[in-house]
Amino acid sequence: MLEIQELRKNPEKVIDGLKKRHFDAKPIIDEILSTDELWRQKKTELESISAQMNQISKEIGILFKQGNTEEANKAKSKTVELKEKESELKSDVDTLEAKITQLMYQLPNVPNDMVRAGKSEEDNEIVEEGGPKREFSFSPLPHWDLASKYDLIDFELGVKITGAGFPIYKGKGAKLQRALIAYFLDKAEQAGYQEHIPPHMVNEASGYGTGQLPDKEGQMYHVTEDNLYLIPTAEVPLTNIYRDVILPSEDFSIKITGYTPCFRREAGSYGKDVRGLNRLHQFDKVEIVRIEHPNNTAKALDEMVDHVRGLLNDLGLEYRILRLCGGDTGFASAMTYDFEVFSAAQEKWLEVSSVSRFDTFQSNRLKLRFKNADKKTQLCHTLNGSALALPRIVAALLENYQTEDGILIPVALQKYTGFDRID
RNA sequence: GGUGAGAUGGGUGAGUGGCUGAAACCAGCAGUUUGCUAAACUGCCGUACGGGUAACCGUACCGGGGGUUCGAAUCCCCCUCUCACCGCCA
After folding, report:
1. Are residues A136 and A99 located together in one domain of the fold?
2. If DSSP codes are grouped into helix, strand and coil, which group holds residue A107?
3. DSSP E strands: which ranges in A197-314?
């Protein structure tokens, strides 16, 4: 959620910024500001009435104590009218507040200056390309064929046990999965991120904290009996660790990581690009999360990009880095870099990581703050990124490292897998 | 699942209708004293919103929501959560 103080101070800047998303914020912001004006007026009025009530109540207390019942009762009668006015104003104020909140929830984050205006993924900027291109002297198989050829992943069995989008990894396929998780976690730890194993279900408050609720409710699996949600990403439990926290000084930089399975309903995305590992209801991911002083956010984002690039280079995959345009940048994000690897047999770019800075958009909802040098509380900045999401990495590894009679394992991974080829 | 207890400021913990935004202690911050360390002493020490250039003033908040009352941390109702014991169980 944006900060209303910013809207009051500089609405034009927000409106201009959101134009890069092709989002017409003017009508919403106009309504917010006029509602806010009215709210403040009513609020001031209410407070002055409350102050009068408090004063009279205090006097009544003293009168009773003195045994002056007559005067006390006289004072009581004075409160009747005030009380009525008070409850009326209270309900006005509540209504206006709810309206403002509801409008504020509709505004996406303002894109960073570096973000280009644009409507869809076609306007994204490719800021970097790297990694080795794979050429084949034979006709390469897509990963789903490789998975069954070498008995690594059983999609049909997953359908039997659970449903589509819940594959079962077997043998070396399972081992590869475990190796990647361990490898990603080790690299994150080396980069200074403290490992966490969070719960895989979260409560409603956490869902609101990171912004999955109320908008993206349909994306999460909901355990209605206990009102818990299966996490769509480790971002949710990891970031919510710092919900309602005030860090004691401005000297901080929090870096945490965690592996979790991620659960996504992917409602409405059936049919396209869902073959094999491309889109699943359950998948594994290692996430990195940072909580930073606003002055350090740009640097932190660069470090995260460097980190993810390092992983892809280590794995020897062809990749490209995109800076998303306004329209393609997620609702809560101020700037996002997507990482895509080239899946050589599908001949398709697959998104394997998304690294974003949210500035105060999340921390405003989370009430995540720090004490600045003036001893005032100030919102922290949050960032997060995948490092990395497994299934598409596995898809690319299988496809890009296939030979006619087996699949090679990148050197960086071999000490984790314990084998150097699958055949 | 059953029974019981509880939820107060960073922590411990007092407080059962008014002078309590909240005692006391601990932690923390600033200072005084002191050869250093330690100790002692003094002051400060919640958050949000509104008003004000500011000092400051006002309002709200004692798990959440509603009610009684001139007045609620304190009484009543509902909900959530936590702890303990029992049952079941990895």
Report:
1. no
2. coil
3. 201-202, 222-223, 228-230, 246-247, 253-263, 282-292
Residue pLDDT, tens place only, A203-252: 888 888 888 887 777 889 988 888 889 999 999 999 999 888 888 888 88
Instruction: Please check whether strand B approaches the CB of A66 to within 7 Å.
Output: no
Tell whether A116 is covered by a domain.
Answer: no
The reply to whether the CB atom of residue A65 sits less than 7 A from any atom in nucleic acid chain B is yes
Is the shortest CB-to-strand distance from A389 to strand B under 7 Å?
no
Domain region containing A89: 4-104
Instruction: Give the CA A413 to C1' B32 distance in Å.
Output: 63
Question: What does each C-alpha distance from A34 to A10, A30, A47, A99, A200 come to in angstroms?
Answer: 14, 6, 20, 11, 42
* Contact of A211 with A236, CB cutoff 8 Å: no
Total domains, chain A: 2
**Two structure tokens written together for A412:** 């960086």
* Claim to verify: residue A90 and residue A210 sit in the same structural domain: no
**Separation of alpha carbons A52 and A49, rounded Å:** 5
pLDDT digits (tens, 9 = 90+) for A294-338: 999 999 999 999 999 999 999 999 999 999 999 999 999 999 999
The nucleotide lying nearest A369 (C-alpha to C1') is B47
- Give a yes or no: residue A193 inside a domain: yes
Q: β-pairing, A246-247 with A125-130?
A: unpaired
Same domain, A149 and A290: yes
